[in-house]
């Protein structure tokens, strides 16, 4: 591919980028174009992304024995994503949940997993997590 062909393809692909974004997309049309200029392919540059929200897992130790109950240095990141297909057709928005957990045997190795949820699946998971956390907290306080 000649340099002229590459430039023609870039101009052609830029015309396929989203012209409008959902209110939660942090890129905006200019950000999508900038992503392409930085080397992203059309599919990656077209994806609508929200700001990501995350947290870190702290190490938990038994306060009496000092034994590590759960190693720290893990965490999670949540981000809303929506892929744009040719013809500006939008896929279903998905909540991407990424988790990384430190391997106990190797302190510098992490296990990473990603879960893509629809908004209704995310609500169900959130409700189930809240229910279980509340049930455990209430059980704990009932014994005081």
Structure description:
With 144 residues, the chain is an alpha+beta fold. It has a domain at 1-48. 35% of the residues lie in helices and 29% in strands. The protein has helices at 3-14, 28-37, 42-46, 119-142, and strands at 48-49, 53-57, 60-61, 68-70, 74-82, 84-85, 89-90, 94-102, 110-117. Strands 1, 2, 5, 8 and 9 form a 5-stranded antiparallel beta sheet that branches. A two-stranded antiparallel sheet has the order 3-4. It has a two-stranded antiparallel sheet with strand order 6-7. It is elongated.
Give a quick summary of the entry.
The chain is of the alpha+beta class. It is built from 4 helices and 9 strands. The chain has a domain at 1-48.
Distance between the termini: 73 Å
The coarse overall form would be elongated
- Please write the string of helix (H) and strand (E) elements: HHHEEEEEEEEEH
Q: Into which percent range does the helicity of residues fall?
A: 25-40%
Strand content: 25-35%
- Structure annotation, total helices: 4
Low-confidence stretches: none
The overall strand count is 9
- Tell me about the largest β-sheet: 5 strands, antiparallel
Which structural class should the secondary elements be placed in? alpha+beta
| Gyration radius from CA atoms, angstroms | 22 Å
Mean pLDDT level: 84
